[in-house]
Amino acid sequence: MNILETIVAHKREEVAARRRAGLRPPEREIAPHRPFRAALLDEPGVSVIAELKKASPSKGVLAADFRPLDLARRYRAGGAAAISVLTDERFFQGRIETLAAVREVVDLPLLRKDFLIDHFQVDEAFAWGADAVLLIAAILDRVLLGELLAHAREAGLDCLVEVHDERELEEVLAAGADLVGVNNRNLRDFTVSIETTLRLRERVPGEVPLVSESGISTPEDVARLRAAGVTAVLVGEGLVTAPDPAEAVRALRGAGAGR
Ligand SMILES: O=C(O)c1ccccc1NCC(=O)[C@H](O)[C@H](O)COP(=O)(O)O
Predict the structure, then answer these.
(1) Over the stretch 96-154, which tens digit does the pLDDT of each residue have?
(2) Range of the domain at 111
(3) Pocket lining for ligand 1, CB < 6 angstroms
């Protein structure tokens, strides 16, 4: 089994258990929806989606002293357009509760970054205060992708639809994705290369904003992606491990100025 298959097998068990336990959102009221897709388009340059990522299957623990609320405030101070919250517990050491907690301390739109295979996870994302969900083409067949897109939109959530290659890109565009993410991480060997985004860029219609995900750490990476017309970058490791995360976001934004 590759890592995605392992994660998805676990998700099936997790969803079944959570469904049995019922939806348990926070008691307090969640503030109104914050448009995620529109926030990425608000900037004249490349927008930064800053990720709260404690650990990963490829690198293990990235931030031993992980303080998501403090990090979220720093991302906001550096000018991030949105925040990606990794909610998977087993492989990334995230928690769904972090969505609601972050929502209390920053006013940016929040993406639930997880491995969604079921309508229930969309409902959870909404209940815990996400403004958008990630849908990964590699783990969804065409029918389920279409259903989850429709279900999320009905709930008022934006969808970032992730692809790794040309075939997946074609499929998600046919399914009606209006925000596409190209993941630069090869899930077989975990290598990352922004060449994946640069290769697929030409095939993404101009009206569909493109997010480049994974393996982006330097202003030079962002400058290359800006020149190719990328709308936003999604950055995890490069920010959670930075000595000054606000400054790190600022530096990436600076390199992406004037798209
Ligand atoms: O990060 C991993 O090791 C990983 C492994 C298997 C599936 C997904 C994985 N990451 C999820 C992500 O997409 C990244 O967290 C996100 O794009 C940020 O990447 P990075 O800036 O390289 O931390």
Answers:
(1) 999 999 999 999 999 999 999 999 999 999 999 999 999 999 999 999 999 999 999 99
(2) 3-22+34-255
(3) 3, 51, 53, 56-58, 183, 185, 187, 190, 192, 213-216, 234-238
**Is 28 inside any structural domain?**
no
Q: Which residues contact 140 (CB under 8 A, 6 or more apart)?
A: 116, 117, 148
For residue 164, give the nearest of 147, 140, 144 by alpha carbon: 140
Residue of 162, 168, 212, 237 marked active site: 162
Q: Average pLDDT for consecutive 10-residue bins of the chain (259 residues)?
A: 90 94 73 90 94 95 96 98 98 96 96 97 94 97 97 96 97 98 90 96 97 96 96 98 97 81
Domain assignment of residue 27, yes or no: no
Residue 14 lies in a domain: yes
Q: Which atom of ligand 1 is nearest to the CA of 238?
A: 21
Expressed in angstroms and rounded, the spacing between residue 18 Cα and the centre of ligand 1 is 24
Q: What is the pTM of this model?
A: 0.96
Is 162 among the residues known to form the active site? Answer: yes
Q: What is the pLDDT of residues 13-28, one digit of tens each?
A: 999 999 998 877 776 6
Check if the beta carbon of residue 114 is closer than 8 Å to that of residue 12. Answer: no
How many domains does the chain fold into? Answer: 1
Q: Decide if 54 is catalytic.
A: no
Sign of the dihedral defined by the CA atoms of residues 38, 31, 67, 86, in that order: negative
CATH at residue 54: 3.20.20.70
Pairwise CA distance, residues 52 & 250, whole Å: 17
